[in-house]
Amino acid sequence: MALVLTGGEFIATEALSASTLARLSDLARRRPLVINGLELHRQDLAELADEAQRTGEPVWPRLSCPTNFLSLS
After folding, report:
1. Is residue 24 part of a domain?
2. 1 lies in a domain?
3. Taking the complete model, does pTM exceed 0.85, yes or no?
4. In sequence order, what are the residues at sequence separation of 6 or more whose Cβ sits closer than 8 angstroms to the Cβ of residue 67?
5. What band does 33 get if pLDDT is binned at 50, 70 and 90?
């Protein structure tokens, strides 16, 4: 299983496909999702989906800008 929901956070256990990232982007329409400890907004997920589509390879969830890290305070 590539994606597990636990305690309000998604855990990606492997790189995600373009279609999975696009669906996550739709889920993030109203509020950001937390995936592997990263707060990802709709635009972040859409850019990752585009990258996966363009390269034909799944990608790991990551941020393009370090200011989106989930605040632990």
Report:
1. yes
2. no
3. no
4. none
5. very high
